[in-house]
Amino acid sequence: xxxxxxxxxxxxxxxxxxxxxxxxxxxxxxxxxxxxxxxxxxxxxxxxxxxxxxxxxxxxxxxxxxxxxxxxxxxxxxxxxxxxxxxxxxxxxxxx
Length: 96
Fold this sequence. Notes:
Structural class: mainly beta
Radius of gyration: 15 Å
CATH topology of the domain at 21-26 and 46-87: Folate-binding fold
Oligomer: single chain
Largest sheet: 4 strands, antiparallel
CATH superfamily of the domain at 21-26 and 46-87: Folate-binding superfamily
Mean pLDDT: 89
Low-confidence stretches: none
Number of strands: 6
Shape: globular
């Protein structure tokens, strides 16, 4: 079981949250062609290691926020509000 640090409510159990996909995906200009929109909708990075994701605290405050998470170990890093500066990833040796 993961404990996710909601930046609004504090640490909570993962069952209270909904995953929202990759964070910081840039929306294309409405005038862009179909290829740009297709890439935005369907193509995502799938790194092994630290990544930034969007999460929603659906059973708590209902707020969206970003979270650093290691996809290989499920280690949880810092959480930060939408629009805040991206914090650096934790040390690569962090264990879950």
